[in-house]
# Entry
Amino acid sequence: MTQTPHVVVLGGGIIGVTSAYHLARSGCRVTLVERQDAAGMETSFANGGLVTPSMSAPWASPGLPRMLLKYLGREGSPFLVRPSALPGLMSWGLAFLAQCTETSWRRNMETTLRLCQYSREALGDLVDEVGIRYDANDNGTLHLFRDELSMQSTKRSSEIIGKLGVRYRVLDADGCAELEPALGPQIKQISGGIHYPGDEAGDAHKFTQELARFCAANGVDFRYGESVQRIEVDNGAVCAIVTDKERLQADTCLIALGNQSAALVKPLGVRLPIYPVKGYSLTFPVGGWNGAPAVPFVDDGRKMGIVRMGDRVRVAGTAEFTGYDKTLSAKRIENLRAFFFSLFPDYPHREDGEAWTGLRPTTPEGVPYLGQTPVQGLYLNTGHGHLGWTMSCGSAKVITDIITGKDPAIDLAGMLLQDR
Ligand SMILES: Cc1cc2nc3c(=O)[nH]c(=O)nc-3n(C[C@H](O)[C@H](O)[C@H](O)COP(=O)(O)OP(=O)(O)OC[C@H]3O[C@@H](n4cnc5c(N)ncnc54)[C@H](O)[C@@H]3O)c2cc1C
# Structure
């Protein structure tokens, strides 16, 4: 008779909590350890909210190295490498640059898309089953272009992902305004767009907290306010998790620690190249604003998005390489504000807006680590970069299948530790 495994999930962000849900649902006993006092308080707190298979193209792309050089130290750029970060960026940076070839870009995009599409379906199933509310927005996403050049470069990735099953529609400026009348007054700034009706959006933080509550009510044991110090291994197999408060005996442990994952597994000989790429968001109240948009927007060139979430609108994005520093840069926030007001100059609460910054746990390939490590009983679900919300539910299902000895429903090539 096979025994129900007891799995200790480390990390209570969107990845840890969705994993806990699927593990518990498949009959495992689950304990989740999280250093904060609640779920979803770090990178999953105020992200862009986009659930976008349409954004499966990885950051590491053939044109990027030249762009990074051009943007070096420039505060207004979508990608900002701070010169002070360069020494700590060396080995990850070289691995990232090695992925900037046409072949790797295409392969990584296909791998990411596989997981994103599976995840999109898994999110729908989870919501049907649990019935949680998270300010979901199912209007798809509209990728907006201000010049023909950026439209052409994004059309290339749409054609590739289109062939792999992602629905999209190319629109001229009038078509964009027809889809989203809020754009009407600024339509002269826009040369066209691509609408992806299968994308969605919603508040990842609300989702994480609601799901954590559901899990707690259904038997998952949450240990909040406990910081994991180390994982103990005996004879090549996990035997305990040591926190600042206790020693938990465990033979199965899932790493979902976002940016802290690499440091925790390094002493066990597991090397995870995950870099904390900083991003920002600014959340505004709708508060009686009649011109508020309903359709989420993405500007691929600026690496920014604008998303309506219930009675709020969030602007988020940009990528900054500056190590683990979470200082809010006034200039970077100003970039988001300027982007928002350029499209919606009539927004009435201009002085408001809640600023936030978070660190995306990013791998060179843009593909997360899923599956078993060489340490028996030690599993990974981490490194989801700029698409953690999008890939969360699918990743959780995959890792649950692996831990419980079932065959995952998708091909995992490119996601496993042994493939990289
Ligand atoms: C500005 C910005 C915009 C984004 N927009 C989008 C978007 O639109 N769509 C999308 O799909 N993704 C987006 N992302 C990415 C997404 O937010 C992340 O990929 C995702 O939140 C990562 O989830 P996680 O659970 O791995 O990490 P986290 O949410 O950081 O969770 C890890 C958890 O581990 C805990 N932890 C760490 N160390 C320890 C320890 N020693 N002991 C105990 N607990 C510990 C932390 O407290 C944390 O709660 C965005 C990110 C940023 C920064």
Q: What stands out?
A: The pocket of flavin-adenine dinucleotide is lined by residues 11-16, 33-36, 41-44, 47-50, 227-228, 256-258, 260, 279-281, 316, 358, 360-361, 382, 384-390 (CB under 6 Å). Residues 68 and 198 are 31 Å apart (CA to CA). The mean pLDDT is 94. The two ends are 35 Å apart (CA to CA).
